UniProtKB/TrEMBL annotation:
The modification 4-aspartylphosphate is found at residue 57. It comes from Shewanella intestini. Keywords: ATP-binding, Nucleotide-binding, Phosphoprotein, Transcription, Transcription regulation. It holds the Pfam family HTH_8. Residues 152-377 form the Sigma-54 factor interaction domain. InterPro entries: AAA+_ATPase, AAA_lid_NorR, CheY-like_superfamily, Homeodomain-like_sf, HTH_Fis, P-loop_NTPase, Sig_transdc_resp-reg_receiver, Sigma_54_int. This is Sigma-54-dependent Fis family transcriptional regulator. SUPFAM superfamilies: CheY-like, Homeodomain-like, P-loop containing nucleoside triphosphate hydrolases. CDD domains: AAA, REC. The lineage of its organism: Bacteria, Pseudomonadati, Pseudomonadota, Gammaproteobacteria, Alteromonadales. The keyword Transcription applies. The keyword Nucleotide-binding applies. Residues 6-122 form the Response regulatory domain.
Length: 456
């Protein structure tokens, strides 16, 4: 949670101000505390510095605390005021709260309670500021740092919206969840987040597919060992203030999920074998190909992690819903492939995009990229060879006809045979990616994993 920092303590008794300042600094170490003994200076101090919170005495020469409370609430509605006074009267307290005081304390009250109230007020102001910044950035049509998105080609309004949203949340300390099918550009967006927030710092990817809880804990948090050469620093240490990209969070074993949620919440981690906690300074960007809410309902993802991740969420559309982008993407991949193959880029026939309008691109940008490489390598200098595209369009038509009509052999296969054949086909089609195969089969990844293990 983002904590606003600046506090102004106002009281005409200088010794009390000093004591209060020292006590509060101990209770809320992140706070930046200023003091003011002259009530006439309060408003000008507030005009010059962006205070999140004012702690205000009531009985002071010149301007009374109650007058100042009204002026502050009117001129600086985002600044909270806590009354700290010797006046122990219910009527006064009620009046102050009515006029917008956040809280009311008697000077003899327990300072720990005052400390809690101050911390809560700072958190509230921090959240409000964060929310306003995100809203303002999101409503702005232009981008502050377009260069951070130069590797993501698009003219789709839905994706351009995601650029502005990412720019708005780039400095928020909360994790970012990016959802989308394989090859929709999740990692490309994670890199944009890195370029926006900490380009000088490391960007570390951890692919969670097939990773055990122990492997994950060791890789992320590191391990402290008495044995020479066995200690290893984790990604959180290496990333410093940079970005850690956790690819395919749905594959994270349940045992590691609770710990990760807690680390994200507390911003403290313990390397394996260490009692000492260390601060987490990096930003987490997490990707998923599957709907985490559905997985949560099946018991495959813990609620604490799910809710921790859903603060900032981007959903990337599949390529079949990005028809406007086909032309620029094909041209871009043609240039890229020609450069790699050391050929002159062949011209793209204008009919190609029209022919691809109804193609589903199950492999999204990966598929388009490899089709283009295939096409460029078969091309002469006159025109791009469109055979690989036509082949894919025809194959998909045949496949959809087959699945629609289900032509079975004379002797029906058993249910077990059909199950096995479907699982094998889904695993082959997805390049042995269990999450994508499970999605294709309409079952959970853990259910597929159980079946695969049973077959071994
Ligand atoms: N808008 C884009 N313009 C150009 N290239 C792109 C764009 N989006 C993605 N790419 C490229 O497409 C490929 C797939 O993108 P990326 O790796 O970001 O997808 P992903 O969703 O993270 O995939 P996976 O789920 O398999 O990890 C990469 O080579 C990437 O550079």
């Amino acid at each position: 949670m983002l904590l606003a920092r600046n506090i102004l303590l106002v009281d005409d008794e200088a010794p009390w101000l000093r004591t209060l300042s020292v006590t509060l600094q101990r209770l809320v170490p992140e706070a930046v505390i200023d003091t003011c003994v002259d009530s006439r200076q309060v408003m000008s101090r507030l005009n010059n510095t962006d205070y999140a919170l004012v702690l205000l005495d009531l009985t002071m020469p010149f301007d009374s605390g109650e007058t100042l409370l009204e002026s502050i609430r009117q001129a600086h509605p985002n600044t909270r005021v806590i009354i700290v006074t010797g006046v122990n009267e219910v009527d006064t307290a009620v009046r102050c709260i009515k006029h917008g005081a956040y809280d009311y304390f008697i000077k003899t009250d327990d300072v720990a309670d005052l400390g809690h109230s101050v911390r809560r007020a700072l958190e509230v102001v921090g959240l409000e500021r964060n929310y306003t910044r995100i809203k303002d950035r999101f409503l702005t049509k232009t981008l502050n740092q377009p260069d951070a998105f130069s590797h993501i080609l698009t003219c789709e309004p839905a994706l351009l919206d995601q650029f502005r949203y990412l720019e708005a949340i780039a400095f928020s300390p909360e994790p970012i969840l990016i959802q989308g099918e394989s090859g929709t550009g999740k990692k490309a967006f994670a890199k944009s987040c890195h370029l926006l927030s900490a380009p000088e710092q490391p960007f570390i990817t951890i692919n969670l597919a097939g990773m055990s809880a122990q492997q994950f804990d060791r890789q992320l948090y590191g391990q402290l060992s008495q044995l020479p050469g066995e200690s290893v620093a984790g990604a959180i240490h290496h990333a410093q203030h940079g970005v850690i990209y956790l690819k395919d969070i749905a594959q994270l074993p349940l045992d590691s999920q609770a710990k990760l949620a807690e680390v994200m919440e507390q911003k403290i981690y313990h390397p394996i074998g260490s009692q000492q906690g260390y601060g987490v300074n990096c930003r987490f960007v997490v990707s998923t190909q599957v709907d985490l809410i559905a997985l949560n309902q099946q018991g495959d993802i813990r609620s604490d992690l799910l809710y921790r991740l859903r603060g900032h969420k981007l959903t990337l559309p599949p390529l079949r819903q990005r028809k406007l982008d086909l032309t620029i993407l094909i041209n871009h991949f043609v240039q890229q492939a020609a450069q790699e193959l050391q050929l002159n880029p062949p011209p793209v026939p204008s009919s190609l995009v029209v022919q691809l309008q109804h193609y589903g691109f199950p492999g999204n940008l990966y598929e388009l990229q490899s089709m283009v490489i295939d096409a460029v390598s078969r091309s002469d200098a006159v025109q791009l060879n469109c055979a690989p595209f036509m082949q894919a369009i025809n194959d998909s038509k045949v496949a959809s006809e087959v699945t629609q009509t289900f032509v079975f052999p004379a002797q029906l296969p058993t249910l077990a045979d059909m199950n096995q054949a479907l699982i094998d086909e889904a695993m082959n089609r997805t390049g042995q990616n269990q999450t994508a195969a499970a999605q294709m089969l309409g079952i959970s990844q853990s259910a597929l994993s159980r079946r695969l293990t049973k077959d071994k």
